Amino acid sequence: MKFSTKTRYGIRAMIEIASDTSTNGVFQKDIAKNQEISNKYLDHIISGLKAANLISNVKGKKSGYILTKEASEISIFEIHNAFENGICVIDCVNFNYQCEKSGKCKPQQFWKGLNKVVLDYFQNTTLLDILNYEL
User: Fold this and answer.
1) DSSP 3-state assignment of 2?
2) Per-residue confidence (pLDDT) for residue 126, from 0 to 100
3) Any idea what DSSP says for residue 73?
């Protein structure tokens, strides 16, 4: 299982924005520089985060970015969902997938359990939790 670059960079961008203590917000060029993300690729990340209503501009276009709510109220799952719908560790546990072995496959319960663990971890870990991690 591998999470997309958009999710990984989205978390990094959110950490950068959440860490800012100024009232001006964080400029995209500063996020790109500090997180070593190309400005062009960061455009896609910022667009996704804005569309998910996780960040906004302080004073309209060409201003810095701020969180739309407290870091303690933003789950990592919300950031992930700005770029991908849900979490699925293997196709057979996806609701949209019809597995020909469904109902006859004992390992399916294992995969469902693992998917629940990963989903719970994403839903119960907040941006603030990550900000408080020790290096």
Assistant:
1) coil
2) 98
3) G
User: Which option is the CATH number for 5-86+126-131: 1.10.10.10, 3.40.50.10580, 1.10.3210.10, 2.60.40.1940?
Assistant: 1.10.10.10
Identity of the residue numbered 102: S
In this prediction, what percent of the chain has a pLDDT beyond 70?
Answer: 99
pLDDT at position 61, please?
73
| pLDDT (0 to 100) of residue 121 | 97
CB neighbour burial string for 48-80, b if at least 16 within 10 angstroms, e if fewer? bbeebebbeeeeeeeebbbbeeebeebbbbbbb
- Provide CB contacts within 8 A for 23, sequence distance 6+: 58
Q: Is residue 81 scored above 90 in pLDDT?
A: yes
Tokens of 81: 């969902």
Kindly give, in sequence order, each residue whose CB lies less than 8 Å from that of residue 2, ignoring residues fewer than 6 positions away.
none
Nearest to 18 by CA among 121, 112, 133, 123: 133
Tokens of 27: 């400029």
Using a 10 angstrom Cβ sphere, with 0-12 exposed, 13-18 middle and 19 or more buried, the burial of residue 38 is exposed
